[in-house]
Design goal:
Number of strands: 0
Distance between the termini: 52 Å
Number of domains: 1
Number of helices: 22
Helix content: over 70%
Largest sheet: none
Oligomer: single chain
């Protein structure tokens, strides 16, 4: 029985997961069990201290600012202008609405607190438009959920901020590292969409390719919105502000765009916008607090160290190790929402990839991509459920439609794992 005691909190956490207990409560209750069991060695008051310890990070200051920036963007009509840019760029293509959804995800970046939120927004906007124009509801659900994977890679991505905090990795390098994989994933989804839409006869939005004047007008109209990722990368690259400070800079920037440039909302709208941002940020921060207490338990029992030792007994080359970790993450990610899985698994996997000599930026991009792909994978992917619920799609129909996309995304994930240069060349160029 004494040999089982160190594992009881982990076992309890997974039992609570199986019982559909919210991730935050499952981690917090499991951590509390550890402190109760070990109260003679660790004072019970340490539990509350470890909960608050999770918030004591300068890096995490960027999180509420970027969430607030996303709320302001939606209120200021910036999202609508980006959709207009997407329509001009790909509106003439077969399956135009689906292509627009993918391109919009590339232009937006992950400005919500989770990929689940991105999937919900896309499903409620473009997804419903697709069904009204006779697209298959299952196809619309697949496109909106898969497109939200792109937003998890393009800066400013909340998932990458959390990973950077957990691993003490440069968030600026992570932001730069997500751009090329995000573009590659966009291209893969667009090509797959074209083949499916061609077979189904999904028509373009417009009959002709955009003229130069149309393209220029759309880009100029959305230029302020399109410039947001470049402001972040340029400012952090040349030391104008830190990655943490970039969150505050972006808030001021989008306020200026909405209030002065577009004049699409007023200061009176700010209380409601701030309320939405506070609720989204609080959900993530509470989860981080619970993960901090659970992380104390893992460190005390040396769980990451034991797992790393177990894996490094075998002669893994970095690529084979990444494939093994990818398989593990896909399985776990289908059961746990991406941000939650990231918080739980990163402290466990970090020592393993460090011993294997895998660059933490490369691993961070692979991990975030993997966990968000898992979120669109049947039978229990979180983004799948959200998009399907909004669009009234059965899991059986969704599973049929998503297969070609899963095949393409899995191939791209293997390519990203095999060729770290695809991820690292831009961070190395900007930050070396």
């Amino acid at each position: 029985m004494s040999n089982l005691l160190p594992w009881l909190p982990s076992i309890l956490m997974f039992v609570l997961f199986a019982l559909r207990t919210p991730i935050t409560w499952a981690m917090a209750i499991a951590a509390l069990l550890f402190f109760v069991i070990n109260r003679q060695d660790v004072p019970l008051s340490t539990f509350s201290q470890e909960l608050t310890e999770g918030t004591q990070s300068i890096t995490l200051l960027a999180l509420p600012f970027f969430v607030l920036a996303g709320s302001i963007m939606n209120a200021a009509g910036i999202t609508r202008r980006l959709l207009n840019v997407a329509e001009v760029l790909v509106g003439h293509m077969t399956g135009a609405l689906a292509q627009m959804c993918i391109v919009l995800s590339l232009l937006l970046g992950g400005l919500t607190a989770s990929s689940n939120a991105d999937a919900a927004i896309l499903a409620k906007t473009i997804g419903l438009q697709m069904t009204r124009r006779n697209y298959s509801p299952a196809f619309a659900a697949v496109i909106t959920s898969c497109s939200s994977i792109i937003t998890a890679l393009i800066p400013p991505s909340i998932g990458l901020i959390i990973y950077g905090y957990l691993t003490e990795t440069s968030v600026g390098r992570l932001f730069a590292g997500g751009i090329v994989p995000g573009i590659i994933l966009t291209a893969g989804l667009m090509v797959t969409t074209w083949f499916v839409a061609k077979r189904r006869g999904y028509a373009p939005q417009r009959t002709t390719s955009p003229s130069l004047s149309e393209l220029r007008h759309a880009v100029l109209d959305g230029l302020w919105a399109l410039s947001i990722p470049f402001v972040i990368l340029f400012g952090t690259r040349y030391g104008i502000f830190t990655t943490t400070e970039s969150g505050a800079v972006v808030v001021v920037y989008v306020l200026f765009i909405g209030l002065v440039v577009y004049r699409s909302f007023s200061i009176r709208d700010m209380p409601a916008i701030i309320q939405d941002a506070v609720l989204d940020t609080s959900a993530v921060m509470i989860m981080i607090c619970a993960a901090s207490a659970f992380g104390f338990y893992l460190a005390w029992e040396q769980v990451p160290h034991l797992m790393a030792e177990g894996l490094t007994r075998y002669q893994w080359d970095p690529f084979t190790l990444l494939l093994a970790i990818n398989a593990l993450l896909i399985v776990i990610g289908t059961a746990i929402e991406g941000s939650s899985a990231l918080i739980v698994l990163t402290p466990i996997l970090l020592p393993i990839i460090q011993k294997a000599g895998i660059d933490p930026v490369h691993f961070g991009i692979v991990m975030v991509t993997n966990l968000t792909i898992a979120g669109v994978t049947p039978p229990v992917g979180g983004m799948m459920y959200i998009a399907s619920r909004v669009l009234n799609v059965t899991m059986r129909n969704y599973a049929v439609e998503v297969m070609p996309f899963l095949v393409v995304m899995s191939i791209l994930l293997i390519i990203l794992s095999a060729f770290p240069g695809l991820t690292l060349w831009l961070p190395n160029y900007f930050y070396n």
